[in-house]
Structure formats: C-alpha cells, structure tokens
Amino acid sequence: MRKVLMVSALALATVTTGGFAAASDNGIRVNVPKEQWLSFAQIAEKLTAQGYDIREIEIDDGVYEVSAVKDGQRVKSYLHPATGEILKQKTRR
C-alpha cells in the first residue's frame, strides 16, 4: 500500500511539473494584477491601429497571446497585459 501511494505522489508531481512547463512555453514572466489588465477590445484596438488583422486573442501564462496577420504574414505575438506592448513575436508559416 505504501509503495502505491509513493508512486501516485511521484506521478502527480511529474504531471503537475510537466503541465507547468507546457504552460510557460512562451518564456515570458509577467506578474500584473487582473484589475490592471487591458480588455480584449483594447488589445485588439491597439494592434488593429498598427496594421494587424486579429484572428484570435487568448491569455497564456499571464500575457495576451494574439494570432494575427500583418503584411500578408501570419504572426503570433505575446503582449504585456497592462500596456499592450509586444514582448515577443514569431512569424508563422
């Protein structure tokens, strides 16, 4: 019985750690209280003004993750939740 509990605890720790690592794939660490965040509409407005055609906006590990098209290329951007500043951007094929 004791071995089963130890194995279960180890499996749970592994799954929890693995899930945490997957959730932070963007490599960005931002800690902003939710009441200071811009709304989805404000984020979309900022990016649209910069020439982005927004496809999707999500929250990922404390930042906004935006899929969009700009200048004919698909891009994935990670934005600061309080300022809307682009912290990281990747061109997608």
Q: Could you give the topology of this structure?
A:
Blueprint lengths: L1 H22 L16 H10 L3 E8 L2 E8 L2 E7 L6 E7 L1
Antiparallel strand pairs: 1-2, 2-3, 3-4
Quick synopsis:
This protein is an alpha+beta fold and 93 residues long. The protein contains 2 helices and 4 strands.
How would you characterize this protein structure?
Helices cover 34% and strands 32% of the residues. The chain is of the alpha+beta class and 93 residues long. The protein has one domain (2-92): Nuclear Transport Factor 2, Chain: A, CATH 3.10.450.40. The chain has a 4-stranded antiparallel sheet, covered by helices on one side. The N and C termini lie far apart (51 Å). The model is unreliable at 1-24 (pLDDT under 50).
Total strands: 4
Uncertain stretches of 5 or more adjacent residues: 1-24
**Biggest sheet: strand arrangement:** 1-2-3-4
CATH architecture: Roll
CATH class: Alpha Beta
Question: Given the helix and strand composition, which structural class is it?
Answer: alpha+beta
Percentage beta strand: 25-35%
Can you tell me the CATH topology?
Nuclear Transport Factor 2, Chain: A
Helix content: 25-40%
Q: Shape from CA axes?
A: globular
* SSE order: HHEEEE
User: Whole-number radius of gyration?
Assistant: 18 Å
Mean pLDDT: 80
Major beta-sheet overview = 4 strands, antiparallel
Q: End-to-end distance, in Å?
A: 51 Å
Tally of separate domains: 1
Q: Helix count, per DSSP? A: 2
